[in-house]
Design goal:
By secondary structure, the protein is α+β, with helices and mostly antiparallel strands. The chain has a single domain, classed as Maf protein (Alpha-Beta Complex), CATH 3.90.950. Helix content is 30%, strand content 25%. The protein is built from five helices and eight strands; from the N terminus they run E-H-E-H-E-E-H-E-E-E-E-H-H. Strands 1, 2, 3, 4, 5, 6, 7 and 8 form an eight-stranded mixed β-sheet that branches. The longest helix is centred in the first third of the chain and has 16 residues, at 49-64.
């Protein structure tokens, strides 16, 4: 089936850089919602990462039916699960303490809530689910995670969101200390996108 681009359901410029880097070898233009002229508020009321990803992708795919764009719509829903905090903030990661609250404040709050908690109980993971909706209505999804633990302070300049407090014992670094190429190779979003890339190549 002929498609002329991929539209990713995000307005996050940092996330788009990662996505475009990972999907570059598909040979399709990869645009954000904004770049594709889609301006719509989407209510993410799913109970899982997968449900929220499909909600976003489906709403945008419906919107694009009225245009001539033969685009595959991709959407991700990702978040941080902290075991000691009953997997909070989870699917509410982007909205934790309010959507417009800075991640410096969010990160400081999570570190404070883990005050006195030893390393072995600070286990956490980043989870990412990606949904794809093709112009003909076919849907696919992939999911991946990366395990780590919550640090005691923010470290690193390369990441965004919760990256500065997410420590990776295996690498001896915080997620925000990883070079972009290294992060894309091992991150939850990077791994889920690589799996989705295999799906897209098989279907196109």
């Amino acid at each position: 089936m002929k498609v002329n681009r991929i539209i990713f359901a995000t307005g996050n410029a940092d996330k788009m850089k990662e996505i475009q880097m990972i999907l570059a070898d598909l040979g399709l233009e990869v645009q954000s919602m904004k770049e594709a002229g889609v301006d719509i508020d989407i209510v993410e009321n799913g109970k899982t990462f997968e449900e929220n990803a499909f909600i976003k992708a489906t709403v945008i795919a419906e919107k694009l039916k009225k245009s001539n764009l033969k685009a595959i719509v991709l959407a991700d829903d990702s978040g941080l699960e902290i075991d000691y905090l009953n997997k909070e903030p989870g699917i509410y990661s982007a909205r934790y303490l309010g959507e417009n609250t800075s991640y410096t404040v969010k990160n400081a709050n999570l570190i404070e809530r883990l005050f006195g908690v030893p390393d072995e109980k600070r286990t956490a993971r980043f989870v990412c689910a990606i949904a794809a909706v093709f112009p003909d209505g076919r849907t696919f999804s992939t999911k991946a995670a990366i395990e780590g633990r919550i640090g005691y302070e923010e470290k690193g300049e390369n990441g965004f969101g919760y990256d500065p407090i997410f420590y990776l014992p295996e690498y001896g670094k915080y997620s925000a200390e990883l070079a972009p190429e290294e992060k894309n190779r091992i991150s939850h979003r990077g791994k889920a996108l690589e799996e989705m890339k295999k799906v897209l190549k098989a279907q196109m």
